[in-house]
Amino acid sequence: MSTDFFAAFVIGLLGAGHCLGMCGGIAAAITLGMPGQRQNRRFPYLLCYNTGRLVSYAAAGAVIGGAVAGMATLSGLSTALLFLRILAALMMILLALYIGQWWQGVTKIEVLGQSLWRFISPFAKSMLPLKSPLAAFPFGLVWGWLPCGLVYSMLSWAAVAGNAASGAGVMLAFGLGTLPAMLLVGSFAETLKQWLSNQVVKKTSALLLLAYGIHTGYVAITQFS
C-alpha cells in the first residue's frame, strides 16, 4: 500500500500541469478584493484554500474506500476487489498515456461529475470575494469537487485501498503531489510549469507509471489462480 501512496503522490506532482489549467485561475478569484496583491498576502489564502481542497479529496477517498471494502466484506466476494484492482491498474495506464501526451481520453471522464458540479458551483461562487484566509478553507472544500479526470482516476485507487483510512491516504497523497504547483506563485510557479512541460520529464514519468500500472494489473490477474 505504501507503493500506492507514493504512486499517487507522483501522479499528483506530474499531473499538476492539468491542475494549473483547471484551477490556476482560482488563485486570481481568491485574491479579488484583497488589499494588495503581494505574494505574502496571497499565500495564506492559497494555503487555506488548498487545505480545504485536500480535505475534500481525503473525505471522498475515505467514503469510497470504506464503502467498497464494506460491500466486499458483506457480500463475501473477495474476487470483486481483484476486478476493481485490475480496473484501477487500467486507470493508471490511461493516466500514463495522458501524462505522456499519447492519448487524452482520461479528460472525458470529467463529464461524469458535471451534473453534480452544476449544483455545487453556484454555492462556491457565492463565497466570493473572500474576506479572510480562513474563509478560503470552506471555499476549497467545495472546489475540491470540481470535475477532474485525474481526481476521478485516483478515486479508482481509493476504491481498492482496502479500507476508509487507506482510501483517504491515497487521495491525500495525490493532493499533496498537486500542492507545490498550486501554492507557488510568480516566477517559482512559472519555473515549475516549464519543468512539468519538459518532454523528457513527461515521457520518462509516463513510462514509469505505465510500467507500474501493467505490473499492478499483472499481480491482480495472477491472484485469480
UniProtKB/TrEMBL annotation:
**Highest taxon above the source species:** Bacteria
Name all Urease accessory protein UreH-like transmembrane domain ranges: 7-214
Regions crossing the membrane: 6-33, 54-74, 80-99, 134-158, 164-185, 206-224
| One Pfam family matching this protein | DsbD_2
Q: Which UniProt keywords apply?
A: Membrane, Transmembrane, Transmembrane helix
Q: Does the keyword Repeat apply?
A: no
Write down the InterPro entries for this protein, in alphabetical order: UreH-like_TM_dom
- PANTHER family according to UniProt: HEAVY METAL TRANSPORTER (PTHR42208:SF1), HEAVY METAL TRANSPORTER-RELATED (PTHR42208)
Q: What's the protein name?
A: Cytochrome biogenesis protein
**Organism in which the protein naturally occurs:** Photobacterium halotolerans
The organism's lineage is: Bacteria, Pseudomonadati, Pseudomonadota, Gammaproteobacteria, Vibrionales
